[in-house]
Amino acid sequence: MAVVILDNGASTAKVGFSVDKEPRIVPNYKAKAKNERKRAFVGSQLDDCKDYSGLYYLLPFQKGFLVNWDVEREVWDFMFGKDFLNVSVRDTEIVITEPYFNFGSIQEAMNEIFFEEYQFKALLRTNPGTLSSFKKHKEDPKQLCNLVLDSGYSFTHIVPYCGAKKLRSSVFRLDVGGKLLTNHLKEIISYRQLHVMDETYVMNQVKEDVCYVSLDFNKDMETARSKGQANAIARDYVLPDYAHIKRGYVKAPNSSKDADIHQQVLRMNNERFSVPEILFHPSDVGIQLMGIPELIVHSIQQCPEEMQPHLYRNIVLTGGNALFPGFQERIYKDIRSLAPDEFDVSVQLPENAATYAWHGGKALVNDQAVYRKMQVTKQQYEEHGNNICLEKFDV
Fold first, then answer.
1. Degrees (nearest 5) of the Cα angle 36, 39, 42?
2. Which residues are registered as beta bridge partners of 166?
3. How confident is the model at residue 256 (pLDDT cuts 50, 70, 90)?
4. What are the CA-CA distances from residue 344 to residues 146, 291, 312, 331, 361 (Å)?
5. From CA 339, how far away is CA 78, in angstroms rounded?
6. Residue range 91-104, pLDDT digits in tens
């Protein structure tokens, strides 16, 4: 039985069959390039693009929710089509993730598309955190409770689980994600050095290549003010010109200054750590919310008392922002200082934080007894309509 697992993120979709070892990561949008006006790149067709400067995006997700169905349908058609996964839809089941607190109208439209348009054999709609929690529980069955921190493109969610159930009243959302960080970096660089407001793709690469989470913000700020050799933080980032340099890179610190006059170089200094700092202090950019560590502690305090020590001991980091160097250490450090002394704190970063939910989906499909209980078949949908999905899917 073929089962497609689709972790449908707002920036990238992680997709593959349940028998695959790793998912394939597909950009979940349509893009148009300046140099190829006539062609739109859908999904991983973006690899064929010669020049990524000034890419124009058509995103199916806005503020974390699926609103542009036409674009999303094109991306899905591409994914399931002959050139990519080559899914024979009528004999295939699908597991797909959706955001927490998703709107009923979006859920209904999703059921309709998968059952009536694509005609999949069975559907399971769930949250990425549920899959991550399931995978964590499979790896360590002794631990009944865990807390999943899912920090992605649009949001950061904090979701405590006990068994396979999420504690709905303790789920919190922080409106800071990778998109906001990239946009903030674009604004800083445009103000200080070069106008890069149109260069979302390139600046996203810069963010992924050089940004890190500081363990001591004030100390790093002092270091960043130093001149010359004393400044261990500053890096020169060579921007791509798409003629000779296809992808930007960090210049080696000791390479000669005038190696190539034609290179465009960004000087990345305190931006390297002040941009990811927004995850910990959203008020820096006027978002009056708690940072991630305070929100985790607040979420755990809303849970029943007997669960609290177990949740502190089992914090799992997932999503793209968990890949920042120093992220895990900083979260541990901050939670340790906020949590009661008698509780142990353990913060775990899986080796594949961005694709962890997809691997959770794979683990779920392999546990047939649980999987069969959770899914809705096409036959059930035809008999009971949308109501059976409302009953069965815990989202």
1. 120
2. 161
3. low
4. 13, 21, 7, 14, 29
5. 47
6. 888 888 888 888 88
